[in-house]
Amino acid sequence: MKNFNDLSEREILAVAISAEEEDGRIYMSFAEDLGERYPDSAKLFQKMADEEKTHRHLLLETYERNFGENLPPIRRSDVKGFLRRRPVWLTKNLTLDTIRKEAEIMEFEAQRFYSKAAEQATNVGVRKLLGDLAEAERAHGDLATRLSDTLLTTDARDEEDKTRKRMFVLQYVQPGLAGLMDGSVSTLAPLFAAAFATHQNWQTFLVGLAASIGAGISMGFAEALSDDGSLTGRGSPWLRGGICGLMTTLGGLGHTIPYLVPDSWQNAFWIATAIAGVVVFIELWAIAYIRARYMDTPFLQAVFQIVLGGAIVLAVGIVIGAA
Where does the signal peptide begin and end (predicted)? Predict the structure, then answer.
């Protein structure tokens, strides 16, 4: 990689041209990705892509006037000092905040590059152009703000807020809730069956731990492999799978941890079981609340489905363990 200070004016202009072309394509990619979900924000990034195209034409004209038509094959990745960023633009269904943050980084990097390049240039025309582009990139953030104010009306912002909430539910709440429900309910029977069969806290804890981790792994893979998110807009399958698996494990561990009460304590089994029972009660009501809050399920219906179902599974585990 070349040091920035070692670049000639010809190479500086070549890097700038390739950078403007790349940034324009990235903004177009953002606009396409946001087109269906956030059409007004997509227009904003379309405008920014048009700005990058204008900058590229100015740079090309200056380059051809000073150095001819042949561009040296040098890009930002060949020069030390540029920010190393993950190519998030290759990922579909990014959140709007992630895309806007990425755009801010891009504009900051471009402004810094042009300011430093203008200081290094000796040709008056090249120096002036680079300085003007530095100012343009500095103002690009203001442009984005102005365009946001123009394009993103109150109704558009409200609509995008609704879309953002829907995406949050699809990508985070739904897999997390599915995991929490499975972990909290499916582990009740084996845990309490082991508890009432052995009356030993440590053995019961091991059964609950194994059931929780096993259920987490199973649910995580099932969620990740069920939908790649390309059509449903539910985001990265591995992110959803991770959330689902983690919440499944946590749901099972909630009422497993009380069985860490040492067996040497007096009435240790009943103390641990009483605490676990309280935890189960809290878990089931929390799930019912989340279903009512985010999944538009009537609260009483959610209570009936979750609390009653969980109570039945709990009773089954106790009956089998005590048999």
Answer: none
DSSP, collapsed to helix, strand or coil, labels residue 2 as strand
pLDDT digits (tens, 9 = 90+) for 17-62: 998 998 889 889 888 888 877 787 788 888 888 988 999 999 999 9
Q: What token pair was written down for 2?
A: 């070349």
Which residues of the chain register pLDDT less than 70?
81-86, 88-89, 91, 140-167, 169-170, 227-235, 296
Euclidean distance between CA atoms 40 and 43, whole angstroms: 5
Domain 4-152 belongs in CATH node 3.20.20.105? no
DSSP 3-state of 296? coil
Q: What is the pTM of this model?
A: 0.50
> The tokens of 204 are what?
């019961």
Are residues 230 and 237 in contact, defined by beta-carbon separation less than 8 angstroms?
Answer: no
Report residue 46 as tokens: 């379309």
Residues 6+ apart with CB under 8 A from 29: 89
Burial 59-69 (b: 16+ CB within 10 A, else e): bbebbeeebee
Output the pLDDT for position 217.
Answer: 92
Identity of the amino acid at 319: V
**Domain ranges within the chain, ordered by starting residue:** 4-152, 161-322
In the chain, what is the straight-line distance between the N-terminal and C-terminal CA atoms, in Å? 73
Segment (H or E) for 148: helix 124-151
Are the CB atoms for 7 and 53 separated by under 8 Å? no
Alpha-carbon Rg of the chain, whole angstroms? 29
